[in-house]
Amino acid sequence: MLALRLPAKLERCHIVPDSLGGEDTPSNFVILCRRCHLDNPNVADPEIMWDWLRAYGVPLYDTFWTIQGMDEYKKIYGVSVMEEFRSRGLQPDDPEVRELQREVSQGASYHFGDPHLNVATLAGLQRMLFKAYDRRHGLETAHQVTAYIGRSGFWQGK
Length: 158
Description:
By secondary structure, the protein is mainly alpha-helical. The chain has seven helices and two strands; from the N terminus they run ββααααααα. The chain has helices spanning 34-39, 46-56, 64-77, 81-87, 95-104, 119-136, 148-152, and strands at residues 10-14, 29-33. α3 (64-77) crosses α6 (119-136) and α5 (95-104) crosses α6 (119-136). It starts with 9 loop residues before the first strand and ends in a 6-residue tail after the last helix.
């Protein structure tokens, strides 16, 4: 997955927000990166924060958003990034993939005021990589996009 790296900046985050009665005590803090700090649940029940941390915790720093971009790719295209690699007989660390990553990364930018690539941009960069690979090898990139909300079964009560 493509990602631009910035220096790590961690922030003290309230488990129960100050605005909802949380105290400024060490037992009410966790350390998160800025993006996760902005995205964490802002609720009065501390169990919700711990559930969120367990569900979204990753073993390596700064991989969460890359994984989110890969999830976004599957939501848009209905196939995982790894399935796309396998269907082409590729591995993410293949030299040709690295070369194409450098090329396609020039075709993306940050939203004004946000120094990170959002998950839709990360998914788009991955798609651009597969399209570039396919063009290079005379392949046609499948284009089967259906509305995610319809695929998920949410509206059908599944």
